[in-house]
Amino acid sequence: MSDTEKHRISEVRVTPVAFRDLPLLNSVGVHEPFALRSVVEVVTDSGLCGLGESYGDLPHLRRLERAGQHLVGTDVFDLNGVWRGVNESLAADSGVGGHGMSGMVTDSSLADRVVSPFEVAALDLQGKAVGRPVSDLLGGAVRDRVAYSAYLFYKWAGHPGQEDDEWGAALDPDGLVRQARRIIDAYGFGAIKLKGGVLPPEEEIEAVRALRAAFPGLPLRLDPNGAWSVASSVKVGQELDGVVEYLEDPTPGIEGMARVAREVSMPLATNMCVVAFKHLPPAVRQDAVQVVLSDHHFWGGLRRSQRLGAICETFGMGLSMHSNSHLGISLAAMTHLASATPNLDYACDTHWPWKDPAEDVVVPGALTFEDGAVAVPTAPGLGVELDRDALARLHEQYLTSGIRERDDTAYMRRFRPEFDPTVPRW
Ligand SMILES: O=C([O-])[C@@H](O)[C@@H](O)[C@H](O)[C@@H](O)C(=O)[O-]
Ligand SMILES: [Mg+2]
User: What EC identifiers does the entry list (predicted)?
Assistant: First the structure.
C-alpha cells in the first residue's frame, strides 16, 4: 500500500461531556444529576474524522489524551499499531481510578478500557474510507435489527432539592410495573431487566413476581450487582426458578458465583466477575457463569468483544451485552457489534431511555427504536454524525456540573450518611 492510500492519524480530540441523569438506585448508591462521557474524535491526514465514546472520569480522560498523542502517525487500518500505541502510553500508569463504574466493577483491563474508543473510531474511519458500515468490517451483519431490553431501576421521584422528574418514584412492585409499562409502551422492548441490590432480596423477588404477572410473555432478568451472600443468592435463585431467564451477578467473585451456580437451575450471568480475558479460564474451569455480558467499553473494543463471543461459544456459555449510561456513538457501536455477533443470545442492555432525548452528541435520526430494536445503520462507518453544537453544549454542561468522576456512593451519602456500599449486603 503506498503512503497516499493510507489514512494516518493526524490529530486526536478528547472532549468530556455531561448529560442529565435521573436518581437511579443501585447497590453502591444513586446516580448523580449528570452522567459523564468522553467523546473521542480521530482525524486523519486524508481529511476523515472517526468517532468513539467512553467513560468521562478524569483519570480515564487523561489516559485517553495521552494515548491519543501516541497514536498520531498510525494508519487507521493498523489496529495492532493502535493497540501498541495505547499500551506504550500506559507504560508508566499506576492503573488507579477511572473505570467509570462508580464502586462497582473491580478488575477490568486498563489497556482494554483505554484502547476501546480508539478502536471504534479507527473502525468508523475504515468504514468511511471504504464506504462500508462497521458491521461489514466485523464480518457482516447477521441481523439487521438489534433487540434491546427494558432496563428498570428502583428510583427516587426526583433528585433531592429538585422537582420530581417525569418518571416519578419506583420504590415498590407497583412503581416498577408502572415504570415498565411506560418504557415498554414507548420503546416496544421484548425483554425486561431489573437493577436490584437496592432493597432486601424478598422485596426484589416480590417485584420480579409482579413484573412476571404484568408481562407474562416477556423474559425477565434481575441484577443485584453482587449484593447477596452465597446463601441468599441460592435462596433467591431457587425461589425464582422458572421466572427469570438469568440471574446476573447475585454474589461477588468467581468462587461465590460457582457455589451459587451449583445450587440453582437458571443460568448465572456476569459483568462483574468476568470482565477481562484473564477471568475466563477460572470461570470456565469452575462453571461459575453461564452467560457473559460483553461490553466493548471494557473488553477492548468491537473486535476483542467478538473474540469474547467466540470464546463463549467454544465453552458453551451464552452471550449478552452490558451497558452504562451512554450516548449515541456508543449505541451505534453496540448495535454494529451486536449485529455482527452470531451467538448473541439475549436482548442487549441499554440505559438509553433514561437519557433526555434532546441531549446527545450525534445528529438525531440515525438510531431509532422500533419494537424494542434498533435498525443497524447502513451508512459508511458507524453511521452517526457528530453534532458539534450539541458537543459544545454538553461540554459546557460538563464544565459547570462540577462532577469529575462518577461516585454514586458519595452522592447517596449526601442524603443518607449511614449508607454502606459494602457487598454482599444481604
Ligand atoms: O447504571 C447503573 O447503576 C448500573 O448498575 C451500572 O453501573 C452497571 O454497571 C450495569 O448496568 C450492570 O449491569 O451491572
Ligand atoms: Mg450487571
Answer: 4.2.1.40
